[in-house]
Amino acid sequence: MVSIRRERLRKQLSGNLIIGRGESILKCMLNQTRIDQVFHAFGDPTRRKLIEQLSHGPASVSDLAKPLGITLAAVVQHLQVLERSGVVRTQKVGRVRTCRLEPTGLNVAAEWIAERRALWERRLDRLGDMLAEEAPPTGRATKKRGNT
What we know:
Helix content is 62%, strand content 9%. The protein is mostly helical. The protein has a 3-stranded antiparallel beta sheet with strand order 1-3-2. It is elongated. 11% of the residues are buried.
């Protein structure tokens, strides 16, 4: 009986790894590439500082470079990575390049995290249900061992 429950639990826990109906493998792969780009952009401490600065509002490249203590060229390279990932959008007017956060790029990471959280919450709920089913009901209190 226990082995049947274990097998059922294994199937339930692994069942969510399969791509559901209506989703194509290509869409999943393209989304994975976008997620990889976003997390690659988040992976560098300098880029995270740039994102933090931009969370306060749009800023020019020179304004972003001042507190970091790095060259404008280095900031531009980091911004290019952020822009390719869809997290930042830049606009050049005259000689000034203004940068701003792109909420849809940030949503890619938020949705990915939310999906994983929901998946693990469902799995842990199922595990809790399975363990509750297997636990024999006891009508008596358990004795505590203490220093007496």
